[in-house]
Amino acid sequence: MQKHSLTQQQQLKQTAAQTVQLMHLIELSNVNLEQEILKEVEENPALEIESDFETQEPEQFEPELDPNFDDFKDYYNEDEYDSYDYRLQDHNRSGNEAQYSPLATYTTSLQENLLQQLHEFELSERELLIAEYLIGCLDESGFLQVNTQNIVMDFLITYNMHITPQEVERILQNVIQQFEPVGIGARTIQECLILQLNQEEETDTLVLAKKILNEHFDTFTKKQYDKLRILLHVSNDALKNAVAKILKLQPYPVVFFENSENRANQITPDFIITVEEGELILNLNNHHIPKLKVNKGFVNQFSFNNPHLSKEKKKEAERFIKENVAQAKSFIGTLNLRELVLFDTMYAIMDKQRAYFLSGDDKDLKPMILKDIATMVNMDISTVSRVSNSKYVQTPFGTVSLKHLFSESIGNEYISSKKVKSLLTELIENESKTKPLTDEVLYKKLKEKGYEIARRTIAKYREQLNIPVARLRKEI
Fold first, then answer.
1. What pTM does this model have?
2. How far apart (Å, rounded) are the C-alpha atoms in residues 72 and 321?
3. From the first residue on, what is the mean pLDDT of each consecutive set of 10 residues in the chain (476 residues)?
4. Which of 188, 233, 364, 440 qualifies as a cystine partner to 355, CB 3.0-4.6 A?
């Protein structure tokens, strides 16, 4: 498979401000990007939306500038505008390609929602980087599945930055776990339940419920209520009330953002992958994104030849025009950069997961982490994280979250956790409902298939799949 040639060369010199703007635009979904563009057009008179029906040659632009402002004419060089085509129309789609139209409106994803909440906290650049990394590590249920020590090591390798487990824990507890919905960032169901109880007003029942979760969680999950009553030295009514309070809690932090098939019908994908003669074709789904250009008539709104206009007023008008035109150029150029980054990153992901995009089977997903793609496209891992967060790809077999395509390797570099989860789901779906498979039996069956997976790992993946233990799956 030969990579599409991106012949456009970006001539902008990136400033720190433009880099910040680029990172912000990369995080946005297509729908939110459209809103951002419309907002920018409304605020900057030097920007306008280019109509798809413009067929006539534009009038020759001759700004009525004072002869003293020749340097400004050089600055306002119309040749530069023609190089900005941030929709990459000649590079990422065929001429007869049909436009994809979503069936329903877009709803905010988990990562987008959390990043918006993150802006409410006053954090240093270092703290913000840790917080954004933690958000990127959350799974579709809102659990944090990455070990704190692994995060510390990843920061050292990726960013050459020394952080401590204490820093990570502090950001996790004081920032991430303060987000809505309550329970975000929990590492286990037990921690998720405790975080929810911590938000409630303290009562005798609440104190007892916390004690059950903190000290006797295993006994509680086994429903050994007589043993609990003896251990806690409480009455049946007190225990009943405490258990009832716990059972009203949500065992998973998130139940409404990344919600299986329903979610796929509610989003506008950022990318579209099709298969033509056995080859994968990648397109950016940006037909509906407004195309911008610099408003060449903007300068003519000001009459520099007015004899009653003082030199100071002329200079003030010049400064106003220069600032808005510069911002317009920068914004269009940043949109161009955004799409180059998105296309290159998604192409690398498609190349890595080629077998999966051809079959649609999770078993064909290869182990892939952010660092793998960052190395392939020669970008910072935080940039790849921003691209993969809140982005979706339309495939021949449905709409898929980019986060779904990432997974760690199990046992060796060729087996992904997604493949193991798929096999576990298949085994449990085909089990006898009167004699469900225990984790030990699942371990043996996977081993027979050639997958040497630790029993504790099987239990962890089963929990991530929202599948209860065998005794709770048993039917009479």
1. 0.51
2. 10
3. 40 60 85 86 87 45 37 38 44 41 44 81 87 84 84 78 90 90 89 90 90 89 85 90 87 62 59 90 87 79 61 79 87 90 93 90 83 89 84 88 78 66 85 85 82 79 82 68
4. 364
> Tokens in use for 155?
């920061």
Distances (CA, A) of 441 to 83, 235, 447, 449: 62, 38, 10, 13
Cβ–Cβ < 8 Å for 299, 63: yes
- Contact 159/179 with Cβ under 8 angstroms? no
| Domain map (residue ranges) of the chain | 16-100+267-364, 110-178, 189-247, 417-473
Cα-to-chain-centroid distance, residue 350:
17
| Cα–Cα distance for residue pair 219/217, rounded to 1 Å | 5
Cα separation values, 442 from 364, 435, 454, 460, 462, Å: 21, 13, 10, 13, 10
- CB–CB of 146/370 below 8 Å? no
Classify residue 409 as exposed, middle or buried by CB count within 10 Å of its CB (0-12, 13-18, 19+): middle
CA contacts within 13 A on the Cβ side of 37: 25
Spatial neighbors of 256 by CB under 8 A, at least 6 apart, are: none
